Amino acid sequence: MRVWIDITAPAHVLVFRPLIGLLRERGDEVEVTARDYAQTVQLLELHGVEADVLGHHGGRSRFGKARSLSSRLRALRRWARGRQFDVGVAHGSHELTMTAKRLGIPSATTFDYEFAWLQHQLGCRAATRVVVPEAIPPQRLERYGVGPEKLRRYPGLKEEYYLSDFEPDPSALSPWQIDPGRTLVVVRTPPDVSLYHRRSNPLFPQVLDQLGHDESVHAIVVPRTSEQRDYVRRLALPSLLVPDRAVDGQSLIALADLVVSAGGTMNREAVALGVPVYTTYGGRLGGVDEMLIREGRLIPLSDPRALDLHKREGERGRVRRDPADMLELLLGGLERGQ
């Protein structure tokens, strides 16, 4: 098959890395497009994934997002037309599914947060197949035109699939002088530019202040954007460490004693790697987070003083799943003409 993959956010690089390898191992041709957003391009380079970079994030405003969407759709159509793709696949990229539908290419999209309303209204309706975790109730997807004929579901977390072969790289900590006697915390900033996270999150600055003044802690803050990086650095808090560029976030998580994240992917990566994790997410919880909280694998944080800042002993409950199963759900029987 000739397969087109579109990558629009940093987390998606990790999702598709093993799938691209499996496709190429079995003799399929894979071409990748990407959007210039946050550390996406840097992570593509870090993981050796070649991609044609088309378009960029539209920023915070709805007008900017709409203008960026229109421009990128035109660029993707020009790029994909005539390349004779058999199938397209993306993680929440409505630009791919919309372009693929217009060009007559079957497409699959996957995601694990069901309340990104506009993204899913566009992307799910255009997609041929929609693949989500079993933790998301199917009735929540009906509003996006996803019925039984289109829906496929998988057990567990997507992170358990793409991290199945992962082992941490100790050199990920080499940019800093880490005192092994201190508690190592990895902190992820909020998704400030996402339409579904409009509400302010006053808890997150409180977390930074609490950790930044604690001399028993090293807190590595992994920002999403250069603006967030500059903001954290301006705080000049002695216990906060901020990377200069994209980092091996999965190794940082695996080597940490705990994780505090205002987003989704890093929360679930910590769960998949058996690392204690707190969420400060301020938006509506999706089915996956609801499940993890019920099971005690994700801890909602409402007061920074409640953080258990102790050294961790070993991993707990790591689950590894076969990424070939995910690939089959996405693309099995989907290619053009079948």
Give an overview in words.
The chain is an alpha/beta fold and 338 residues long. 35% of the residues lie in helices and 17% in strands. The chain is built from twelve helices and 13 strands. A seven-stranded parallel beta sheet has the order 3-2-1-4-5-6-7, sandwiched between helices. It has a six-stranded parallel beta sheet with strand order 10-9-8-11-12-13. Strand 9 (217-222), helix 8 (226-235) and strand 10 (240-241) form a beta-alpha-beta unit. Helix 1 (10-25) runs parallel beside helix 2, helix 3 (62-80) crosses helix 4 (94-103) and helix 4 (94-103) packs parallel to helix 5 (117-126). The radius of gyration is 20 Å and the shape is globular. The model has no long low-confidence stretch (mean pLDDT 92).
Summed up, what is this model?
It is built from 12 helices and 13 strands. It has 338 residues and is α/β, with parallel strands linked by helices. It starts with a strand and ends in a 7-residue tail after the last helix.
